[in-house]
Structure formats: structure tokens, C-alpha cells
């Protein structure tokens, strides 16, 4: 499975804040057997964001998007993603999300009129709860079967949502299991000629560390027993080299 990680926010491009969200997502997605093919940062510009999403649609299994889910005019992530997925005619006010917003602001004694747009989603969307802030996330599926996963920008909100909502979604139809193996002498550049890295289940991915090259073998299966059998095949492939 292939993924694009897309961080949205002009403040990132200006160097005002550091994008730690992309690093966090990439680090956790590899353990789920999802290969991150590219990371991109786009400013708060509707045309540029739409171009990136249209190019990604159908090319990747998942597009993980962080930022731009706030209540102001420059928070355009959901609006553009809905348009690219062709879900404009499904938009409706989600009562559960609105109730969470009302509860959040009642506790803080603030008005919520400007925030109501954060509770509007396509009917087919999977809504991701955000108990750490005001911006719920969501998962949208395009006609080309790409799943756009929209997450909030503040790192403490994004990490909580990913750990408690997104991982459950990704793991709901299968399990992912990984093991690692350390090579004695081979360097990363030498792997392609020495080790068979082809195949998508299990996947075998090398990465370099200060202590040598590590191979991560990852299996996707319907249950743990099947995953163990797939991992054994991957380990056998390594031993043959």
C-alpha cells in the first residue's frame, strides 16, 4: 500500500513552525505496512492544494493530510478534499460533531457560530473525533478509491487522533506484523544486488543505522497465524541470500 503525506499551512513554508506531524506519521505508517512514497508541504492556497490532490487521486491508496481544518477562511483542507472527491452534494451538519463543539465551547464560555463549519461533512465520510480540540478529522473516499485522511494540524491533536481513531480504521480489515533482521556486512546500497526486495506481501525494506543496515519484513494477513507464515517465507528469502 502506498501513501502520500501532505502537510498544509503557509506557516510551515515560511519556517515559522516545524512540521513534526509528517515525521510522526511516516514513523508509524511503516509499522502498519504502508509505504510512504512522498511528503509534500503546501501553503494555504486553494488552487495549489487542489492540484496536488488531483494528482494524488488514484495514484496512492492513502493521502494523509494535516492542517487546515480550523474555522477561518484560510482553513481550506476539507473544502478542497470534498471537491476533489466529488462529494459536494453530500454535505450535511453532523449532529454528534456539533454537540462536541457546543460542549467544548460551553465549558470555555465562548461562542461557536464561526466553528460550525467544522461540523459539516459529506454523508459518506468517516468522522474522526477530536477530544483535544475543536476540529474533527475525517476520511473521504474518492471515485478512484483513494482514501483522503484529514487530520488537525496541532501535533497533540493529530497524534491523539491518529493513535486512537486512524490506526483502528487502518487495522480493521487486516493485521500487520513486522520483524527486523540485522545484516552482518551489507550496506544499504548493496542490498539491491544481494537481496530480493521485490514482492508486496511480505515487503522487505532496508534502512541504514549507525550500527549497520536493518531489514524490516512486514506481512499483512487476516489473522496472526497467517501473518507468521508469511513472515517465515520472507525470512527464508533472506537466508537464501
Automatic annotation (TrEMBL):
This is Molybdopterin binding domain protein. It comes from Anaerococcus prevotii ACS-065-V-Col13. It comes from the Bacteria. PANTHER family: NICOTINAMIDE-NUCLEOTIDE AMIDOHYDROLASE PNCC, NMN AMIDOHYDROLASE-LIKE PROTEIN YFAY. Residues 4-173 form the MoaB/Mog domain. InterPro entries: CinA, CinA_KH, MoaB/Mog-like_dom_sf, MoaB/Mog_dom.
Amino acid at each position: 500500500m502506498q501513501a502520500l503525506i501532505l502537510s498544509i499551512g503557509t506557516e510551515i513554508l515560511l519556517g515559522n513552525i516545524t512540521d513534526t506531524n509528517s515525521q510522526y506519521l511516516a514513523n508509524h505508517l511503516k509499522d502498519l505496512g504502508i509505504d510512504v512514497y512522498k511528503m509534500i508541504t503546501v501553503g494555504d492556497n486553494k488552487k495549489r492544494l487542489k492540484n496536488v490532490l488531483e494528482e494524488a487521486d488514484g495514484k496512492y491508496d492513502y493521502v494523509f493530510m494535516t492542517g487546515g481544518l480550523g474555522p477561518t477562511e484560510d482553513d481550506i483542507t476539507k473544502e478542497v478534499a470534498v471537491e476533489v472527491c466529488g462529494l459536494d452534494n453530500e454535505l450535511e451538519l453532523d449532529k454528534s460533531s456539533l454537540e462536541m463543539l457546543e460542549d467544548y465551547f460551553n465549558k470555555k464560555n465562548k461562542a461557536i457560530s464561526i466553528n460550525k463549519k467544522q461540523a459539516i461533512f459529506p454523508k459518506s465520510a468517516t468522522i474522526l473525533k477530536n477530544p483535544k480540540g475543536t476540529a474533527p478529522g475525517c476520511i473521504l473516499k474518492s471515485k478512484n478509491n483513494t482514501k483522503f485522511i484529514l487530520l488537525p494540524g496541532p501535533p497533540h491533536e493529530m497524534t491523539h487522533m491518529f493513535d486512537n481513531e486512524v490506526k483502528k480504521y487502518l487495522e480493521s480489515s487486516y493485521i500487520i506484523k513486522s520483524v527486523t533482521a540485522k545484516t552482518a556486512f551489507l550496506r544499504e546500497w548493496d542490498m539491491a544486488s544481494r537481496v530480493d526486495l521485490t514482492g508486496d506481501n511480505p515487503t522487505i525494506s532496508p534502512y541504514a543505522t549507525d550500527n549497520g543496515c536493518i531489514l524490516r519484513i512486514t506481512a499483512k494477513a487476516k489473522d496472526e497465524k497467517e501473518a507468521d507464515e508469511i513472515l517465515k517465507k520472507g525470512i527464508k528469502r533472506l537466508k537464501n541470500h
